[in-house]
Specification:
The chain is α+β, with helices and mostly antiparallel strands. The protein has eight helices and twelve strands. The longest helix is centred in the N-terminal third of the chain and has 23 residues. The chain binds aspartic acid. Aspartic acid (ASP) binds next to strand 8.
Length: about 300
């Protein structure tokens, strides 16, 4: 059995004609670069954990996505970054929330997993840990792009609340390596206009990110408040492990629960046998897949 890598770059109102040709090309190129980075690890016999981190790091540096540089902004115009990574082999998991100066939040999440006795660090403590272990730091302004400033200005002009138009772009990856191990990672700036230290589903193990070799690996994107209430990632994995459903069937059942609670979004799922599926309830989801068998596909819109 070979390896499989699936990535996403956010779900939402991703429809033909809504984005500029330039932005669309940039998004496709970013997904291709991330796919290449992760696939190179897997093709060389590397670990699923290394592959998902490699893919997500590329997307964190790419301003077309809502993670790292290009993150959605808080109501104050700052970036507060959330990320998680999980190893399905050991069920070790690391997560960070409200990180402000670490260039690669997914790498910091992995450091929490591997170099601290904890699972989840947030805010100033996460930043302090990051500095203490010598991770690459940047000014908060490095994450802030003109496009995200414009998103925020548009939202504030409309009044109260946070982004209901789903200008998302959260990123994630799931992989199964040649040895049969699974991993998942997710990274995000959250939602435009967030405040009060809001944290969504993305960094929360079981909600936005989950991997267990006995079932599957899942990374989510969408309405974080609803994904938290459903525990989407672990719910999908549990169905695979306990009910033996297909990856697509398990994702459909759980996304239907999200829909029933009024949320929308998407998931990518990798199963034990190298099977993988994406599912979304939004008009589109930035997504891509590569396998050892030579499959390679990049898609944005629902009809692709
Ligand atoms: N789920 C993310 C959050 O709520 C947003 C997204 O996926 O775009 O923070």
């Amino acid at each position: 059995m070979g390896w499989t890598l699936m990535i996403h770059g956010g779900a939402g109102r991703i429809e033909r004609g809504r984005t500029s040709a330039e932005a669309e090309a940039g998004t496709r190129a970013g997904l291709a670069a991330a796919l290449d980075a992760g696939a190179a690890v897997l093709a060389a016999g590397g670990a699923a954990l290394d592959a998902v981190e490699a893919a997500v790091r590329v997307l964190e540096d790419d301003p077309h996505f809502n993670a790292g540089r290009g993150a959605a902004l808080t109501r104050d115009g700052t970036a507060e970054l959330d990320a998680a990574i999980m190893d399905g082999c050991t069920r070790a998991v690391g997560a960070v929330a409200r990180v402000s100066c670490t260039r690669h939040p997914v790498a910091l999440a992995r450091a929490v997993m591997e170099r601290s006795p904890h699972v989840f660090l947030a805010g100033i403590g996460a930043d302090a840990f990051s500095r203490a272990i010598g991770m690459a730091q940047v000014e908060n302004g490095w994450f802030v792009t003109d496009a995200r400033r414009a998103n925020l200005a548009e939202l504030l002009a409309d009044g109260d609340g946070y982004d209901v138009d789903m200008k998302y772009g959260t990123v994630g990856a799931v992989a199964r390596d040649a040895a049969g191990h699974l991993a998942a990672a997710t990274s995000t700036g959250g939602v435009t206009g967030k405040r009060w230290g809001r944290i969504g589903d993305s960094p929360v193990p079981g909600a936005g990110t989950w991997a267990d070799d006995r079932g599957g690996a899942v990374s989510c994107t969408g309405a974080g408040e609803t994904f938290l209430r459903v525990g989407v990632a672990q719910a999908i994995e549990a169905r695979l492990r306990l009910l033996g459903e297909t990856v697509a069937a398990a994702a459909d059942v759980v996304l239907a629960e999200v829909t029933a609670l009024g949320g929308t979004g998407g998931v990518i799922v990798a199963g034990r046998e190298g099977d993988a599926a994406w599912r979304f309830s939004t008009p589109g989801m930035n997504r891509a897949v590569a396998t050892a068998a030579g499959e390679r596909r990049i898609a944005l819109y629902g009809d692709e």
